[in-house]
Design a protein that fits this description.
Radius of gyration: 30 Å
Strand order of the largest sheet: 1-2-3
Structural class: alpha+beta
Order of helices and strands: EEEHHHHHHHHEEEEEHHHHHHH
Number of helices: 15
Strand content: 5-15%
Shape: elongated
Length: 385
């Protein structure tokens, strides 16, 4: 294949290549570049090589907005859950399309992507939201490369803000006991008890059914979570990952509390009569309907305030459970499995604030195994001297 270089003006060149015959007619492709003759010749060589090796992609007339709509429809709708899809669609509609939706894919470059992120950062978007925006745009552009709409992904080299480590806010053991006492006799007792003893997510607690509870064996089968979208309202969905679906053992105190709660709920159901909506949920409203996690969060914060405790979110119950287990010497692998983390590294990284105490215990345990009880090592060393 040969290309042709035609001068069009001062430092302006027309590159023209022959693509073959289509329907009996010779087909050419041409484009204009600006620069020296040496630069234009190099561009022509690269263009010819790309055509000959099959890596050339004709400039797309598709816009960024059209790509995002297709990506949401053809990929995201089938590969992510409804709540994630709603977040992606919101990011596209509110932030990406108004800014660069009109830009043709062939014209989009990394500088435009960086400008988008800088503008949104200046508007006050958090680093975490910016990274979510980048994930959406990058994945859509990655699909565009697969669909041969563009040769490379313009978002590959984008500059992103760092997301700081999540600050783990947990209750101290005495504070956790105070919260449990304050919750007794209220609708929050079981959610608080399960959160502090198992580390279940609040959505998992709200989705727990009596069919998932084995009071004889003392186990909870966590298979789903409660989610909400604007079009579907509240609904139960499968656990997010294979690790999230898990079997959690509970102790005798929790078993007794669940048995008493089951009896009380049966009485509540009789009192509600026909207004009761039977969903088989362990934690539900006075009519049997699911409770929004956000509602429980507000109720918990009021309870904490009234009890004179730090006002934290329901996720603090999970953090407290993890911290208590680790400080009590429970193996991190067991903690990971109870929490449903994808890997033990996530558990250790998230609860690294507990590490100093564990390091001290480890040092004392190793010295105890080698030298015996504290003080004995010093005597042994002195005797040897």
């Amino acid at each position: 294949m040969r290309g042709q270089l035609i001068k069009r003006g001062e430092n302006t060149w027309l590159l023209r290549v022959y693509l073959g015959e289509v329907d009996g007619k010779r087909k050419y492709q041409a484009k204009t570049v600006h620069g020296t003759k040496k630069f234009a010749e190099a561009e022509l060589r690269k263009w010819v090589q790309a055509i000959e090796t099959g890596t050339y992609v004709e400039p797309s007339k598709v816009t960024v907005g059209e790509l995002l709509d297709r990506w949401l429809r053809d990929w995201a709708a089938d590969n992510v859950g409804p709540t994630s899809y709603e977040r992606y669609e919101s990011i596209v509609r509110q932030h990406i399309k108004p800014a660069i939706g009109h830009v043709k894919l062939s014209k989009l470059n990394v500088l435009m992507v960086n400008d988008l992120y800088a503008t949104k950062r200046a508007e006050g978007l958090s680093p975490r939201t910016l990274r979510l925006m980048h994930a959406v745009l990058h994945n859509a552009l990655k699909a565009a490369v697969r669909w041969r709409l563009i040769p490379t992904n313009p978002a590959d080299g984008a500059d992103l803000p760092r997301v700081g480590r999540e600050e783990v806010k947990a209750l101290l053991p005495e504070q956790a006991r105070t919260l449990l006492r304050a919750a007794e006799g209220t609708p929050l007792h079981i959610p608080v008890l399960l959160g502090l003893t198992t580390g279940m997510r609040i959505g998992e607690i709200c989705a727990l059914r009596w069919d998932d509870v084995n009071l004889e064996a003392g186990t909870l089968s966590i298979t789903q979570t409660l989610a909400r979208t604007s079009d579907r309202g509240l609904f139960l969905k499968p656990a997010k990952t294979k690790r999230s679906a898990r079997l959690v053992e509970i102790g005798p105190d929790v078993v007794r509390a669940l048995k008493a709660h089951k009896v009380a709920q049966a009485q509540q159901r009789l009192a509600a009569g026909e207004t009761w909506e039977d969903n088989g949920l362990v934690v539900c409203g006075p009519d049997g309907k699911p409770i929004r996690p956000s509602t429980l969060n507000r109720q918990l914060q009021r309870l904490m305030k009234d009890a004179g405790l730090p006002v934290l979110s329901t996720h603090a119950l999970r953090h407290t459970a993890a911290t208590l287990m680790l400080t009590q010497g429970i193996h991190p692998k067991v903690v990971q499995e109870r929490l449903g983390h994808a890997s033990v590294s996530i558990t250790l990284d998230l609860y690294s604030h507990v590490t100093p105490g564990l390091q001290r215990k480890a040092a004392e345990a190793v010295e105890g195994a080698l030298f015996g009880p504290p003080g004995k090592a010093a005597k042994t060393t002195k005797n040897r001297a």
